[in-house]
Amino acid sequence: MRTTPLTPDLLRGALDLEATVHGLLPHRLPARARAQCADPQLAMVESQPAGVRLVFRTRATVVELDTLPTKRVYVGAPPRPDGVYDLLVDGRLADSGRVEGGNTLTIDMTTGSVEHRPGEVGTLRFTGLPDRAKDVEIWLPHNETTELVALRTDAPVEPVPDRGRKVWLHHGSSISHGSDAASPTTTWPALAASLAGVELINLGLSGSALLDPFTARTLRDTPADLISVKIGINLVNADLMRLRAFGPAVHGFLDTVRDGHPDTPLLVVSPILCPVHEDTPGPSAPDFSALSEGRLRFRATGDPAETASGKLTLSVIREELARIVRERAAEDPNLHYLDGRDLYGEADFDELPLPDDLHPDAAAHRRMGERFAARAFTPGGPLGDRAA
Q1: Dihedral through CA 303, CA 307, CA 313, CA 314, nearest 10?
Q2: Which of 46, 176, 310, 324 is the most buried (most CB within 10 A)?
Q3: Is the pTM of this model over 0.70?
């Protein structure tokens, strides 16, 4: 077995690589953006490598990857499953694996306390790969911070040449991050990217799609052929702003993106159906009553009457986003709008209800990925004409 240095040309989907005592930690926000917000939630989720993958060309039949994962443990809840690594050979799923051990982040949701305990490096091993030149991708766990320590193979490794695929840059909430998807290649953005044949950069940030200026600047500065932004649910979850601030904040966010991508197809996606917040403002609050059984639900704590004073609901946000995009599109023909309920709506909720009242499950992720590919990436779709 030979060791190949972990270099940026072997990684896709990360916007920054931090050197650690163990190896490399992929980040999905650049250092300057991270320095502008001390929120521990943001720090945790942007280091979870949704959409980040090792990509290389090799004849190797055995691949080993040493990583140091950071596992999350929630006080009072059953253990979470280890994060999943997906192995693709020439674009097709060939195997999956997990890495045991690692650091532990113990979170008490009732008090907000967090305790970090260091752990040991683990090894992921894939065998029986076809003995021929091939493209190999190892998608890192979308919901588990992962330091890359060492890559070993039984044949030389080289970067995959540019195949001319378009780059799709997407930003959204925990639903875009991956929420309850089964694995990193089955989050709805990863599925949509696979179906459309585009290269994904996933800036889905759980709990942190909040129209932050540093996120807009990250989108502005990241090379991309196609861009989408999914706006809404986290603003209601956090009860972050009122309608008076929301409209100008959306305009400012889009203005910043357009500063770097003046003509790039840009799709604004409103929230999927979420009955608890359709007409009831936030903030959201966890319901701990069934936590010991492994079930956590969320509830809306606002009063529907408060919308009269400017509190945001998903219905309000959809109406405002549609208006903003419609008015801006008069001078920006590459700006488009998609109602999130076209991806997951009332009929879907009846068939595939949100397990915790906020997040879609694995089956719903698959449905959303297929629908987004069909609505956004097909010829004539908002991202379709330049995706080919």
Answers
A1: 130
A2: 46
A3: yes
